[in-house]
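Please go through the protein record below and explain what the tokens say about the fold. Record follows.
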Amino acid sequence: MLLPESVRWLPLTGVAEVVGDAKVVAIGENNHYIREFGLLRDRLLRLLVTELGFTVLAYESGFAEGELADAWIRGAPGEPEVLARNGFTFRFGEPAEVRGMLGWLREHNRSNGNRVRFAGLDLPGAGGSPVPALAKVRDYLGRRTELVDAALEATEPYHAANNSVALARYSELAHAERDAATAALARLLLYLDAMPDGGPEHLIARHHALGALRLDEHLREFTLLGTEPPAKVVSSRDVYHAETVRLLRRLHGPDARIVLMMHNAHIQRVPMELLPGIHADSAGTHLAGPDYVAIAVTATVGTTTDTELNENAPQGFDVVPHPAGPPAEDSIEAAVAGEEPVLLDLRAARAATGLPTLRTTRPISPPDAERLDATLPDAGSADAGLSSSEVADAGRPDSGVADAGRPNAGLPGAGLADAGPAAPGLADAGLPESRRPAPGMAVAGLPDLGVAVARHPNPGVADAGRPDAGVADAGPRGAALHDSGAADAGPRDAGPRDAGRPAAGPSTPAPPTPGLPATGLPAKIRHVTTHLAVDLPAAFDAIACLPEMTPATLTTPDRSGQNGVPDRFE
């Protein structure tokens, strides 16, 4: 399959050209726990930091937990294994590639005055427990902990190691119990809003309280997916991602340059489809603007990963290998097969005419789909009780990244306590030494970024795109937890023309868009264990495609509390 002439083929070092002067750059991945994606992100981060002046790395992991990682890369004592256990959610700190990236940041900061900061973007407790965030609020409030204690007690019934287990527990609660949890969290947030603004520490404490409330609302949103939800729903998790970016811009100043590392589904500029005909705005939808660049990452062949619940595993789940299979015939991976590694610049394709509206061919199941089916049939009135959306400003119009950063009021860096220098003699075992990367510098296991791209395919031949026929791609799935789950079910075209249109059934062909011939870009991009379709130029500025993907090796850190989530406070 040949790509349109408007798509530019660049070496991976061409990312600097795609980024330009953007303040927020998101680097995605089609699935988590992939070794090659981790290595590529590490290399791109080094380039963005050393060549383009980026000073914040914001990762798809808990905001509350991320404070530990921020202190560590700025010299706080500690071992990488402890950082992997306590500084990340969803086990995202365990791959060697992530720990190596953080080790480079630590060494870089040691030589450059701790200029680079780290922050988590996500809900606390792997989306299953508000405790890590509420612990931070409790520390901030000192003796005035009555509202925090009330929130802890009200959310205890669904407190769990991850969002899949928490959803099952939440689904079993009576409506009054759900409303009591929401009310307790909302009262805590309102109390913080009524306090005098105490500077960065207050802003961060409020964001922790907001994260706990968003988590509660996200579980409520999941229950709606088991009923007859409207065509457009809210993903409070993605809303919180965007809110965290706005907070970082306020804390670090509107001129700070931030690297986001999230799943492709979160960074795309267009809404994602959770279930057939059911859409929610992604984080990228909230952030889209002239200062935002989204770069998807994918691979042609290899082995991908899946997740399976295991109460004895760290954070309550195992990561298991899963055959990726060959790329779909009408996929972007098939179009570049044999030419990777390559960076496809899609920006010019947005202005092209005759590009189809691309649609999904397979919905992704919600997290722990069998349990969801078993527990949600009677949840039809789950949304009848108190909702936190208005309390947390969920409906506030987004003005885009260009307007999201409020004027800098002289606030210091992320407002987290600056840890002292690392203890003398502390060894960063296994972490790379700091050095300024030269263009084309080789990294073991990763194609050289300066590699020349093979010739552009013949642009004169158009490939027919096919409309979505609702055909399901085969392939087993485990108990999905984060981006394998309903809230991150992945990209389908959900442009403005689809916003209020009734959904076609899973076996009903989607209606073609009038006036758009079925030619242009491929219909699909690889997503987790299958392929999904999306209007690629509308969703991403560029796509980096590697030749192969293999599962990363995860450590098995010691755990505290319940699978890494403290029962209350450590």
